[in-house]
Task: structure prediction
Amino acid sequence: MNERIIALDIGDARIGVAVSDASRLIATPIDTIYRVGYGPDVRKVVEICQRYDTTQVLSGWPLNMDGTAGFQSEKVKAFCEQLEKVGLSVVYQDERLTTVTATNALIEGNMHRAERKHNVDKVAAAVILQQYLDTCRNQQQQEAAKMEEQDNIIELIDDETGAPIRFQHLATIEHEGELYIALSEADAPEDGQCEVFIMQVAQEEDGTESYIQVEDEAVQQAVFDKFLQLVNEGSGDDE
Result:
């Protein structure tokens, strides 16, 4: 199981604190540290990390609107270096406009101005953390989709040229006791028409699979019709 992440919105007077759940899906604001000095402030962050049994810290990274780092970024970096010296692991997340987002959320929640002042920093930390969690989750989903796509690639050798051709495995189809596969060229232009190839699956003596071109046009058409039926059924499930 992943360690929780403690997020910090580091300001000159206060540090807003938020924490993720163990599955790293949801960010929750938990505390506001009123700054005293490096030593006490670092100890307070360490205490919170120990409470949630984690060494993982995410710090908001204050950038200018043009994306450049300024004096405030240097102060945040200096504080986070102190956290690293006591064994915490720190990563950074762009925090531009997070305080505005947090303030607007509190206003929409009908929180009075005095209460907002005491809560805005930890809510900003939660906004920073949620953005980070969402970004990580999206990256993981994209990587998983890419790996799944790679798993569906079959490489065959062109009989005439001897060159390898990459095919995307679209479906495996049973027809009259035999197995067939539907393929399309993996490297075909995206804006081009997708041509589907039907091949029969054969079992070699050593147990490996090989693929044989289907010469019988009637069998080709029958298998292709079954493939279209699978595609149409899948499209119906998505609606």
Q: What stands out?
A: The chain has a mean pLDDT of 83. The beta strands are 5-10, 14-20, 27-34, 56-61, 89-94, 153-157, 164-175, 178-185, 196-203, 209-213. The two ends are 35 Å apart (CA to CA).
